[in-house]
Design brief:
77% of the residues lie in helices and 0% in strands. The protein is mainly alpha-helical and 196 residues long.
Length: 196
């Protein structure tokens, strides 16, 4: 079943790349932030409606769910590059860039020090990082919506590659994996014999 999940993710990535390359996003009546929100809601509804999908995703454990966030290092750095080039405004790119970089580095630390989950301290560290990372992505998305409503041209860079991958895949995946990690951390308990 894990192969099927990875196949679905590969098809999703291929579709996101194709959409970004074809210019479909630029022609949609829905702006990029709304695309990200709609896909996020769709993923959450799928997880809610399918016990089988939930079992498979929870069965992965935390490592792949945390590893998704390593991509935020590259995304954050690219935001800062685009700010320097004058493509994105500082009001969006600087907090989004540094927030993503910090969250991505935090993901690496969590992968090294907290996975597999053996102690209550590790679980607490996972939850703290996860909470901060979720707050960061929600603030970035909220800031993006606010700035887009003020200046719709801000959305234009997000309608073609590589930034088109953010609303069509990365942002929904990031939000959903944060929520899944919270659910996983509440369902799973460290082995009480190795608690420190």
């Amino acid at each position: 079943m894990h192969r099927t999940l990875f196949l679905v993710l590969a098809v999703w990535l291929a579709a996101a790349i194709n959409i970004g390359a074809s210019g479909v996003l630029a022609r949609l009546p829905v702006p990029p932030p709304a695309v990200a929100l709609l896909l996020t809601v769709g993923l959450l509804l799928t997880l809610r409606a399918s016990p089988r999908v939930r079992r498979v995703v929870y069965g992965l454990g935390p490592a792949p769910l945390v590893a998704v966030h390593l991509a935020r290092i590259a995304a954050g750095a690219y935001f800062l590059v685009l700010y320097r080039r004058g493509v994105l405004p500082a009001e969006f790119a600087v907090p989004a860039g540094w927030g993503d970089i910090a969250t991505g580095i935090g993901a690496a630390v969590v992968l090294i020090t907290c996975v597999p989950l053996r102690t209550e301290r590790q679980r607490l560290a996972l939850r703290v990082w996860n909470g901060l990372g979720l707050i960061d992505i929600l603030m970035v998305l909220g800031n993006g919506v606010r700035l887009f409503l003020r200046e719709p041209a801000l959305g234009v860079p997000f309608t073609s590659l590589p930034l088109a991958l953010l609303p069509t895949m990365l942002v929904p995946a990031v939000i959903v994996t944060h929520l899944l990690l919270f659910a996983w951390s509440w369902r799973s308990r460290p082995d009480p014999h190795v608690l420190r």
